[in-house]
Amino acid sequence: MQIRLLGDVRLTAPDGSEVRIPSRRSQALLAFLVLSSGRSLLRTVVAEVLWPDSAAEQARASLRQELAVLRKALRLAGL
After folding, report:
1. pTM for this one?
2. CB-CB contact of 66 with 74 (8 Å)
3. Rounded distance, CA 66 to CA 22, Å?
4. CB of 74 closer than 8 Å to CB of 62
5. Burial of 67 (0-12, 13-18, 19+ CB in 10 A)
6. pLDDT tens, 26-63?
7. How far is it, in rounded angstroms, from Cα 25 to Cα 28?
8. 5 and 31 in contact (C-beta within 8 Å)?
């Protein structure tokens, strides 16, 4: 698997096919998780980083939504 973070966020599956990450927020979430690889992250921290202008509860709800979107994209790609 290859992940490109400079410019447009792109994820390439091991078979060379491009994995479509449908939203900018999901792309940002993927980039944040990749850059934080190896570290434990609290959901509240991730939500605050990606949705700094939202109330905590709304930010956590948005995070849950984007995690679902990201998981679905990865699952559809067989990852």
Report:
1. 0.82
2. no
3. 10
4. no
5. middle
6. 999 999 999 898 899 999 999 999 999 999 999 999 99
7. 5
8. yes
